[in-house]
Amino acid sequence: MSAALISHFRMDARAPRTHAALLAAAAIGLAPAPPAQAKVEGDTVVLGAAVSLTGKYATNGKNTENGYALAVKRINAMGGVKVGGKAYQLKVIYYDDESTSARGAQLAERLISQDGITFVLGPYSSGLTKAIAPITEKHRIPMVEGNGADRDLFTQSYRYMFAVLNTSDYYLRSAITLAAEQARNIGKAPKDMTVAIAVENDNFSQDVRDGVAEDVKRLGMRVVIDDKLPPELNDMAATLAKVRALKPDILVVSGHEKGAVLAVRQVAEMQIDVPMLALTHCDSAQIIEKFGAKAEFAVCGSQWDRSLTYTDRWFGSAEQYARMFEQEYHYEPPYQAAESSASVLAFADAFERAGSFDTEKVREALARTDLMTFYGPIRFDKSGKNIAKSMVLYQVQDGKYKVVAPSRWASSRMIFPSPDWAHRK
Question: What is this structure's pTM?
Fold first, then answer.
């Protein structure tokens, strides 16, 4: 990506990071602002994004930035967006939010008030999205995001925030449904199955936990362990000791990349036998690359997979998108990158349908979105969440991620129960 297409800003000045600073940033000027005119430089429309390029979310912050950048490059290479009979290129200004909410809120304010940005791409994580959304809402600036999945985001009556991804309570619901199906195949009733839950004490993981618990109850299963992982995410031995003693049928773990790495490592080290280990963030945590055979049979929730049959006019198929990403960045695209690219496509589609860069017209076009992309279908409800796509479940089989649910797009059959450690190769 050339400097002409993407501008990178790494902020060095340190802003206050207290809770009070975040609240102040969100509260300034609560009165609605008038509609803004887009920042256009000649034949280029400029978007803005504060993403986590340093700090605890740096890995997925970089995946987010790469996803945005690839979509911008592809759209521009295809002639840009056609608005009012003229073709416009896209450009993104980036700031580093340092993985902190106070910094994210401050930078969102800077993008809008100082840089004149009128279209914002979301940050990585629900926490950062929660910090930025009040700012964009205050200024009536459309934001499309693909990495804030906390369902609480969609109970705030925001009118200017749109999310292309599924909410976090859906990440591992399908693992519970799939386990029930597999149990029936081996002559076991779902109501006789037990579940262990171990999640990080953050909004995203708590939403994952709540979605799992809701489906466990719906299917008549029973939760026998319901633990919060330590905040450092460096040890879950106490939980695994209970798993060894209580022998649940399913162990669900959510704690972003560190949680996935911790679970795979310690389950292998302690030789914990559990018929299904279900995780979030497997691909971005690189559990196959880091653990090899020890990661076998793990079941992973994902927003997207390259084997899906979705197609669009920009990238073609999901597989073609994955190849373009690999050529550009030399690693396989995790779903965080794919959903970020889809966020840019949603803006491009809205610009063209609005026939204008007027923020209100673009907001209305976003609200009417009905778009198929390589990432999946996008259609927003009144709360701004995407109600058209489904989550994906894959299982590590023979050192690869194989889609096992939903069955319509499955490339492999689920292996259940996972072999005991004594019988693994």
Answer: 0.78
Fold of 6-166+307-378: Rossmann fold (3.40.50)
User: Phi, psi at residue 371, to the nearest 5°?
Assistant: -130, 135
Average pLDDT over residues 396-410: 88
| Residue 64 in tokens | 């987010």
Strands 250-254 and 194-200: parallel
**All CATH 3.40.50.2300 domain ranges in the chain, comma separated:** 6-166+307-378, 170-302+391-423
Buried-exposed string 37-50: b where 16+ CB fall within 10 A, e elsewhere: ebbeeeeebbbbbb
**Residue entry with tokens 């996972």:** 418
pLDDT tens per residue across span 344-393: 999 999 999 999 999 999 999 999 999 999 999 999 999 999 999 989 99
Please enumerate in sequence order all residues whose Cβ is within 8 A of that of 148, keeping only pairs 6 or more positions apart, or say none: 122, 123, 125, 126, 128, 129, 130, 133, 163
CATH numeric code, 170-302+391-423: 3.40.50.2300
